[in-house]
Amino acid sequence: MSKYFEEPACKDCKNAFSTAFKKLTASQLEYLANNKLCSQIKKGKTLYEEGNRITGIYCINTGILKVYKTGIEGKEQIIKFAKPGEIIGYRSVINGEAACTSVKALEDSTVCFINTQDLYKLLKENSELGIELLQIACKELGEANSYLTDIAQKSVKERLAEILMRLQEEFGTNKEGIINLILTREELANIIGTATESVIRLLSEFKNEGIIDLQARKIKILNIQKLKKISNIF
Prior knowledge:
The chain is an alpha+beta fold. Helices cover 42% and strands 21% of the residues. It has eight helices and ten strands. The strands form three sheets. Strands 1-8-3-6 form a four-stranded antiparallel β-sheet. A four-stranded antiparallel β-sheet has the order 2-7-4-5. The chain is elongated. It starts with 25 loop residues before the first helix and ends with a helix.
């Protein structure tokens, strides 16, 4: 990770109102700015790996990072995509355990590191920060429960339709209508828990039915209502 760049200033951060630190006082925000460490991570580089001991949390300033677990024979299970304004690593830090996931940059990214001691100091001073972290943890737990339900009750086709809609909702589209997050077929398979070949076949099926358009790894949704019907989301 390179340190030779202009660090983002906390008080001027464009993600200020979407991070867990939005309720900090001016003096606490200044303390955070003076003690954080910011780094750039190149696309494809790993921030930390499952099983590592991490000594603080990370706040995403720019870029998108993939959060995943590694299963049998090294197969990835993607847990989430961390976007600007989100924090990662807090569960392991607060629990005092090794990292429960691995994190890799999907594009050139900038992250800010807050060590455990500074995090605890801010938590003791500002109860609203603790509430924010608790709410984030509850939201992620709810998403995990929904995912387990989908795995148990939905077909691969239904899960793929649902994830395509969620990706468009979460990351938006460019002026051509293409989903802003570009993923490999393997990564799509690793989100919904299936084989890459199944995703390739289903994407081709969706394209032939006029539901989506494919341009290499780029995906454009043409008929959101058909996807919604396939996904069984009501």
